[in-house]
Design brief:
By secondary structure, the chain is an alpha/beta fold. It has 24 helices and 36 strands. The chain is globular and about 85 Å long.
């Protein structure tokens, strides 16, 4: 390996003139400076234009319009036959028909998913040049493999970090950890434009970078996928094998081959006296990582973690006094990248054979069929089908009577499949992935995990479902195209139902077009058609200034694929009439969102993305650092996303509460509730009364006493007794309250910690009533007790205004689809 390492920064004398090394092209040795993204793009473009071993594909653009690239590296012969190699790989997986005629494995290396874990993009340039330079001893590898390189998954985040360092880094660099260059400002370079962690988005595909990448990934399905990361500056290098828990569907071969790769890395690291560790911290369970998602798609999926992260800069002094440089970090990633390719090529026949077996035998799967019951909400099912299509998971229709696990009751039950139900059979290539995403309870061999422990798709979409061990025959299913609505000759009003995000986008479109809207707080009926609470009423009288009223409303409805009911009278057959006080005029929300220091960048970003990309409704972002200078009277809704708000003292909170009392609406989410809880600003409390507080205090002391004699090595497990890392709970909903319009009487919430609050003095709209309401995932024994009889969603009046309390963030990572309408209700309906 020392020979490989020496080549890393060596410029050969006899270079082919048209293919330059990174040093020759950029004018500096890798590691001396950070390379901005456009320079990385230029270098890969140069290689593709001047080397017959490189093919470049632009597979998308970021939100900030930076290109997303894939680079295919192989022999000229293989690149000429690239499409057939790709199709042969899908034939092995059973996705394409026929038998493969080639025997070429695909090795996919992904760099810089976290923007401030910046050494990996630099390492990618060193790696590709080593693979293609004329006098490289790696040329045989290219005859026997296709290497796919994504040099930067997150260009927007990377440039945020690199530009920061160029602006504030000393010249020469200052290795003192206290120097400004080692302390990024909020929000840091880790996330993308909308401040999402792209490494948690592989399965959910909420971000444009992920959507674009997975579309291409599913066209290739590599045998190996490596995700290059960085961790704390004092950590040794981490590589496979991963830590427990492994998901039970990960095959023995996948486990063992990880170990083989790890041993190969260790050989080179040992030669260079580099520290490393394996089998610790980074498990293989949560399905939306850059190691697990590929693993559940048949690959050997792995995370490699180099010390550095956003603190390391060009060089930083570590705890033992050594200086960790960018050159060191590049060398380590370069080494594991080449070592991965080496062992994959040496064992290509085993890789390809076991890859085919992964997709070919689904007999061990516990469930054979997942049935999602159609409840008339076509929008939910359309959204789910679209997501399934993105995954490459097949679905269809079936009939019959089965026995299976009922997601709603948590028990086995008999059920019938109706003609409109959505049925997913495990008799398909993507069966393992589908099973993992839909399984009602994930088996945990170790409760200490790196991420959430439950993600059941039926819960996330709010769809009643069954998981059955019985198989059924599936007929193909296709969605009917949306029908355009004709313009009526005359309308007293239009009514639109309210039960999905598609309805919410329609409302947003109406308000942006200055259309005046009402909504009903009670069910109504007109000519046999029922309209539940929250249904929108667009009355001609309210919009009398609008010429061509009918035509304009229908145009907006068709643009949003909404079919409206036309009514010719304000007299309803049942329920409130259009002029009733139960039909509320909807005052157009003027919404502000708090951001910057003191807010969780991820929670803030999820809300920002939701407003702009999903709801498509304007929002003003207010910085916490200048909050005191803002005239809040310009807004009637303020969202205070999760955070710690350390700069928000008594002056800021009193200003906010005065605004609420004057008629404003504050929506406080998760951590933001700590500024309200047990204070004079709100009735929100950790405990219902003094007796409950005293009982909890006594319980806390007893737990503390029990923990005193816990051995040191078991203290982490003692801690998680009071923690719920991504557990799904059943919530009882008061769907007569505007916050819950569009929902039934049950909702499923995702708990991501140990946050609890007692019932409010006001409206307790969503509550957990019992410790047995845990439906899926892990919750510690103390957490189960603490969660009983607690608030999830509530509203309290404060003079003329309202505070909406949201204990569990429904916008968490943007994949909990069934929670999004609740946020819209909070912004648009509550307090009207």
């Amino acid at each position: 390996m020392k020979t490989i390492l020496n080549i890393l920064f060596f410029v050969p004398i006899l270079l082919v003139a048209q293919t330059q090394s990174p040093k020759d092209f950029h004018g500096y040795e890798l590691g001396e400076k950070f390379t901005r993204h456009h320079q990385v793009v230029d270098y890969y473009t140069h290689l593709s234009e001047n080397s017959g071993k490189v093919t470049l594909l632009e597979y998308g653009k970021t939100y900030e319009d930076r290109p997303l690239l894939l680079v295919f590296v192989s022999s000229e012969k293989n690149l000429e036959n690239l499409e057939n190699i790709r199709l042969d790989n899908l034939r092995r997986a059973g996705i394409e028909e026929g038998s493969p005629t080639t025997n070429i494995p695909i090795i996919w290396l992904s760099y810089n998913v976290h923007g401030n874990e910046s050494s990996s993009t630099e390492a990618s340039m060193a790696t590709i040049y080593e693979l293609i330079r004329e006098d490289s001893d790696k040329s045989d590898w290219l005859e026997n493999a296709v290497i796919v390189i994504d040099p930067c998954i997150n260009p927007d985040g990377r440039d945020r970090y690199v530009n920061f360092f160029w602006q504030y880094g000393s010249q020469p660099y200052n290795p003192n950890p206290n120097a400004m260059e080692h302390n990024e400002p909020w929000p840091g370079g880790r996330p993308n434009h909308y401040l999402f962690d792209l490494n948690r988005d592989w399965a959910w595909q909420t971000q444009i970078e992920t959507k674009s990448r997975i579309k291409v990934y599913n066209q290739w399905l590599p045998q190996i996928h490596v995700d290059f990361h960085e961790q704390g500056i004092n950590s040794p290098y981490y590589f496979a094998p991963a830590a427990q828990p492994y998901h039970e569907l990960i095959t023995e071969f996948q486990r063992n081959f990880q170990t083989e790769i790890g041993r190969n890395h260790a050989k080179y690291f040992d030669e260079n006296n580099w520290f490393y560790f394996t089998k610790q911290f980074f498990d293989l369970l949560y399905p939306s990582y850059g190691d697990t998602y590929p693993t559940y798609n048949g690959a050997i999926g792995m995370t490699y973690e180099q010390a550095g992260h956003g603190r390391a800069g060009l060089g930083i002094i570590k705890q033992e006094g050594d200086t960790l440089t960018l050159k060191d970090r590049i060398a380590h990633h370069y080494t594991t990248g080449l070592s991965t390719i080496e062992i994959a090529v040496d064992h290509s026949d085993r890789l390809l054979d076991n890859f085919g077996k992964f997709f070919g035998d689904n007999s061990s799967l516990k469930y054979k069929t997942f049935v999602l019951k159609y409840d008339g909400n076509e929008d939910k099912f359309s959204a789910l089908k679209s997501w399934l299509d993105d995954q490459g998971i097949e679905y269809g229709k079936a009939s019959g009577r089965l026995k299976g696990y009922d997601y709603e009751s948590g028990r086995m039950a008999d059920f019938s499949i109706s003609s409109n139900d959505l049925v997913i059979s495990m008799d398909q290539p993507k069966a393992s992935l589908a099973h993992i995403l839909f399984e009602p309870k994930t088996k945990l061999v170790d409760s200490v995990t790196y991420d959430i422990t439950a993600w059941g798709v039926p819960y996330a979409y709010g769809i009643q479902a069954y998981a059955s061990s019985q198989a059924v025959d599936i007929a193909s299913s296709s969605s009917a195209p949306a029908n355009s609505m004709d313009v009526p000759d005359k309308a007293y009003a239009f009514i639109s139902k309210w039960n999905s995000m598609d309805d919410a986008r329609f409302l947003a479109a109406l308000l942006k077009a200055d259309v005046k809207v009402r909504f009903t707080e009670k069910p109504m009926n007109y000519k046999g058609e029922s309209f539940n609470r929250g249904s929108l009423i667009i009355a001609k009288r309210d919009n009398k200034q609008m010429s061509n009223f009918e035509e304009r409303i229908v145009k907006i409805a068709n643009a949003n694929e909404r079919s409206l009911s036309v009514i010719q009278t304000g007299f309803m057959d049942a329920g409130p009439d259009i002029g009733s006080s139960d039909v509320r005029f909807l005052k157009k929300p003027k919404i502000a969102l708090l951001g910057y220091e003191g807010t969780s960048s991820l929670a803030f970003g999820a809300t920002w993305h939701f407003m702009e990309q999903e709801l498509e409704y304007p929002v003003s972002i207010l910085g916490s650092d200048y909050f005191n200078r803002v005239d809040l009277s310009e807004y009637n809704v303020l969202i205070m996303q999760s955070g710690w708000y350390s700069s928000f003292g008594e002056k800021e909170m009193e200003k906010m509460m005065d605004w609420v009392s004057a008629g404003g609406k504050l929506i406080a989410v998760e951590g933001a509730l700590n500024k309200l809880k047990d204070s004079d600003y709100s009735s929100l409390s950790t405990y219902v009364d003094d007796d409950a507080k005293n009982e909890a205090k006594k319980e806390k002391e007893e737990r503390k006493e029990a923990a005193r004699l816990v051995p040191y090595e078991e203290q982490e497990r003692e801690f998680i007794k009071g923690f719920a890392p991504g557990a799904i709970y059943k919530v009882k909903m008061d769907n007569t309250h505007p916050l819950a319009f569009g929902y039934g009487d049950t909702y499923y919430t995702l708990k991501t910690g140990s946050k609890i609050a007692a019932y409010l003095d006001g409206n307790n709209v969503g509550v957990i009533t019992d410790k047995d309401d845990l439906m899926s995932g892990f919750a510690g024994q103390y957490a189960k007790v603490d969660m009983a009889e607690t608030l999830v969603f509530g509203v309290e009046n404060k003079e003329r205004g309202q505070i909406v309390h949201i204990v569990d963030n429904p916008l968490f990572r943007s994949f909990w689809q069934n929670g999004k309408l609740l946020m819209v209700n909070a912004m648009f309906f509550v307090g009207q």
